[in-house]
Amino acid sequence: MIPGRAGTDAGSAGAVYSPAVMSASEHPLDQLAAWRASGRDTALAAVVRTWGSSPRPVGSLLAISDRGEMAGSVSGGCVEAAVVEAALDVMRSGSPQLLKFGVSDESAWSVGLTCGGELEVFVEKVL
């Protein structure tokens, strides 16, 4: 399965966002608390399960603001872009999402990986 949401290609919607990435030294929860203190809507994404090759371990966090700003990381590249898009949806709806991403062993070489892998990311609005 190509990286996406609920078995679909997350890039198919054509949505584009322009995140302002936080400093690598800032902890995602500290930045999330600062956004919340200033009255901003926020969401938190966490890697909850991995199989095979995965760039970040279980427990990795990504804080997202209502402006698409990010602190932390759950993967990188197109996966992280899809997580931010989902987080913006979660902030609007209030409904959490469990996102599944993966690439098969057969397709791994074509996207620059030595082996396939999967990960699940849970995204919820922080009140």
Give an account of the 3D structure.
The protein has one domain (19-126). The chain is built from three helices and seven strands. The chain has helices spanning 28-37, 77-93, 105-108; strands spanning 4-5, 8-9, 42-52, 61-65, 70-72, 97-103, 117-126. A five-stranded antiparallel β-sheet has the order 5-4-3-7-6. It has a two-stranded antiparallel ribbon with strand order 1-2. Strand 3 (42-52) and strand 4 (61-65) form a beta hairpin.
Total tally of structural domains: 1
Q: Which blocks of ≥5 consecutive residues have pLDDT under 50? A: 1-25
Radius of gyration: 14 Å
Number of E strands: 7
The description of the largest β-sheet is: 5 strands, antiparallel
The largest beta-sheet arranges its strands as: 5-4-3-7-6
Q: Percent of residues in beta strands?
A: 25-35%
